[in-house]
Amino acid sequence: MKERMNELIDIINEADYNYHTLDNPTITDQEYDMLLRELFEIEAEHPEWVREDSPTQHAGGKIIEGFNKVQHKIPMMSLSDVFSEEELIDFDERIKKEGITPEYMCELKIDGLSVSLLYEKGKLVRAATRGDGTTGEDITHNVKTIKTVPFKLKEEVDIEVRGEIFMNKATLEKLNEERKAKGEPLLQNCRNAAAGSIRQLDSKVAAKRKLDTFIYHLPNPLDYGIETHAEAIEYMKKLGFKTNPNNRLVKNMNEVLEFIAEKGKARPDLAYDIDGVVIKVNSIRQQQALGYTAKYPKWATAYKFPAVEVLTKLKDIIFTVGRTGQITPNAVLDPVIVAGSTISRATLHNEDYVNEKDLKIGDIVSIRKAGDVIPEVVEVKKERRTGSEKEFVMITNCPMCDTPLVKKEGQVDYFCPNAKCPARHIEGLIHFVSRDAMNIDGLGDRIIEDFYNFGYIKSIHDIYLLKNHEKDLKRLEGFGEKSVTNLLDAIEASKSNSLERLLFGLGIPHVGAKTAKILAAKFETLDNLFNADLETLTNIPDIGGIIAKSIRDYATHEENIQIINDLKEENVNMTYKGQKIEENENFAGKSFVLTGTLTSFSRDEASEIIESFGGKTVNSVSKKTSVVIVGDAPGSKFDKAKELGIEIWSEDDFKEKIK
After folding, report:
1. What Å distances lie between residue 83 and 199, 246, 275, 277, 301, CA to CA?
2. Catalytic entry in 62, 69, 73, 109
3. DSSP code of 646?
4. How many CB atoms lie within 10 A of CB 133?
């Protein structure tokens, strides 16, 4: 009987591969069902025989308490985005200036979520999300339910591959028909449905979603004697992975543009959603020569299709209160689907923005997603006005606490001056735990709001007292023992953050992340900063009178002094742990602009070096700019620097100055 079980596993796995990966069924559905039923019966009778690579394991059934963190040995980097032919040509020219004449592999950019699959001796041992590129989440229990992910490869090889998990359009349509019949909320789009499925703790739910994959990247091809990306795709296909048949190897940028035009037209007829085309240099040796920036490979980019605009009705304009008390008008729209998502709200930024666009309540407006992500109002269709539209009127009192609003001279935004406004408290707490501040994983916007309403977190100090409510938290819906433990561990870990994170998290008006880093590096401890007088603060480059006064106001306010003392009692770090500023006469007090491609540094690395010597980097060239550092293929900033007579350094000059 055990021999028969092993035989059935081999037959069914081969049938799954032919059907799901090669799209070439070799047995009928009836035969498949009979074989699978026979296998289920044998395994039910002898559960101790069940193999990890059995097709029955695709059905799911494993339930976990939370997702474990996974460290990627080779970082999962994202791609730079381009939005026009001109930007693509610039990308091509930058590569050619390195002395490379590239072939390109064009691939469809699948609108799903990235996954890393790790195999040892040909057996799947782990699947993980991208996460932040360095640390992802272990989603093996759900990925095992995807039939195009082989449990066992056709060779006993140690390998990691990367690709995209997605849901087909037809699958989404069928799922929504079933959900509608049951009175359940509909899934918005294929990408969100796939992401939501992968993040289920119960793998049976993921199994029902019938997810799919395309594998497109081998992180270390030279280890397998592979010299081109095209060869890597073929090798992964040979091992049993599903790869996209729409990939195309082209000889030049003209052929890239032809591919984009062709696939743009074919986009509506594809079985899955795409949001662009990925272009990669084919030669692995050339990829290595081109290298990486801090965030992106220089040998690849993603062309994003133009955002789709749709029309809808502006039903109302409502107002929200930010952490600093800033009042923001928001459009309430008739729900409309834009690029696969249902949009019913969009920010309108401030009073001037609304007036410049001449928005009236009741208008028909065009909506799009900026960068295919953030919904924005593009324009009013004035020809559609009927005369029944209502004029926009800016409010005069806070919508949460009814305090009269203030607008400072020279500013466009209105503010609620009430420091005890509930909305300001919640937004301030959300800011404190955010990624660029204290980076406390597990305290998302909605959880902060819930914990505030439950009375667990009313102040920053309460975040560090959340451990006193551990038993209560475990009783809340959606909070198992492991998730609560992970949350409390993340809060404890945040105590060790460097000073600039705390300083930014405190929400001092006008102190952004970059300013916080300058101040932390300069003063080294929070006490040193808060004891500095107005003149000392004002004389620091990039600080000035407004920021200096804001810091002094915060540091002398009794309530804020109590917050800092409370945090000290909880052993929250108040010291700068980063690179200290060692003032260098070539940099101290000067402003720098970077243009072109640097070969030895990424932009972020160069900026960090400049700041470590007391300088600052800015984005645009003006008469106040001290130096422009020029890399390969510099743009208009170089021309403007010459026109204004600003000092210009080559990359070699920069290296000499930092020795």
Report:
1. 31, 21, 11, 11, 10
2. 109
3. -
4. 13
